[in-house]
Amino acid sequence: MRDLKQIVKAYDVRGVVPDQWDAELSRAFGAAFVEVVGADAIVVGHDMRPSSPSLARAFAEGAAARGADVVEIGLCSTDQLYFASGKLDLPGAMFTASHNPAQYNGIKMCRKSAAPVGEDTGLVEIRELVQSWIGADDKVTVPAADASVTVGTISQQDELQAYADHLRGLVDLTSIRPLKVVVDAGNGMGGHTVPTVLGGLPLDIVPMYFELDGTFPNHEANPLDPKNLVDLQVKVREVGADIGLAFDGDADRCFVVDENGDPVSPSAITALVAVRELAKAKAAGETEPVIIHNLITSWAVPEIVAENGGQAVRTRVGHSFIKQEMANSGAIFGGEHSAHYYFRDFWRADTGMLAALHVLAALGGQEQPLSQLTAVYNRYVSSGEINSTVADQSERVAAVKAAYADAEGASFDELDGLTVAGADWWFNLRASNTEPLLRLNVEARDEVTMSKLRDEVLAIVRA
């Protein structure tokens, strides 16, 4: 019997189609989603992958068979689905595998108003219910709904313009200086959303790979990997652009390069947006507004938040932890070093597009180039995330912890993996949830210290 733990991850469903899952299984997930969430209506969207429309429709049919009315919004970015969930006050399901290769697909699910569905908030229950419907022959048999249940309706609704209007109502770009902006959509959903969101503004948009193509013919839609930024960097320099933006496959993350084609750290973007959100909140009378940051963002982020009258709260890596902490603390904004950005004004959900609007507004509201504007947020030297394949994750983490046990002035915490901090440096070592990897992030006050520490830890990890 197939084991759904192979495709149901900590935050979503993700696997190869049709080898690991297909329309039949998606129909079962639709039924289980409605039962676990207790929904009488849901909203469903999908990205541009070849398998997405049929999987999304099967999910809708499974949900409708359980009595839920389904609003299909069709092609959309993940943050557009979150918008629809918030605006319509409905649970939602987005069919995407984000930045994964073409043969993958998945489901990101949320409760009403984009509240997360993760392993601690319903995803395990959904998985176990679907698992109970799979027989020894791997056939999926969803029990018939109670006779009292009326089959739900399936209708279509276009939310793209409303999504764009909402975002543009949060950040005013109408009076900025003209900017030349190169946008690499990576053949993903940015090619669908960017023209509507950024159209009509004082921006000269130079589009790259806006054609929706889930086979990703130009490069993977994963800007976290430096090789996928190369085309954007070249184009920015070639056309003399003020800024470059790169979106991932489902366009919920946005990466930024400056006028020189150099990547801007997501930690610097977190700090820049935090300063803007703090100013807005304080102007509205809020005292010491809260900003969330995960534990692998730069030390500069909490420092800058404090300097601007905010309270920084550190949390684990991962959107469900960020969103939960935002709800608990009433935070106005949250940022992750993976370029996920969360806004209270966007139902605490992540939206790379709104972060991009903030950066464009900040850049266009003054005369400095982006490299100078963001320099004040780059106070330390970081390694970036380095992955190592290991046979025993916990054994290697323990070896690193033992090696630094007597380091002078070092502090340790295990909020998420192992974090060790000294006076002038810190590193975090975390195990991947889905692969036999350890992920290392190192930061220090100077390049020499960072490089030495990075190499020391990697030598232990890879021993």
From TrEMBL:
Transmembrane segments: none annotated. SUPFAM superfamilies: Phosphoglucomutase, C-terminal domain, Phosphoglucomutase, first 3 domains. GO terms for molecular function: intramolecular phosphotransferase activity; metal ion binding. Residues 385-458 form the Alpha-D-phosphohexomutase C-terminal domain. Keywords: Isomerase, Magnesium, Metal-binding, Phosphoprotein. CDD domains: PMM_PGM. Residues 6-130, 162-261, 270-380 form the Alpha-D-phosphohexomutase alpha/beta/alpha domain. GO terms for biological process: carbohydrate metabolic process. Its cofactor is Mg(2+). It holds the Pfam family PGM_PMM_I. Belongs to the phosphohexose mutase family. This is Phosphomannomutase/phosphoglucomutase. The lineage of its organism: Bacteria, Bacillati, Actinomycetota, Actinomycetes, Kitasatosporales.
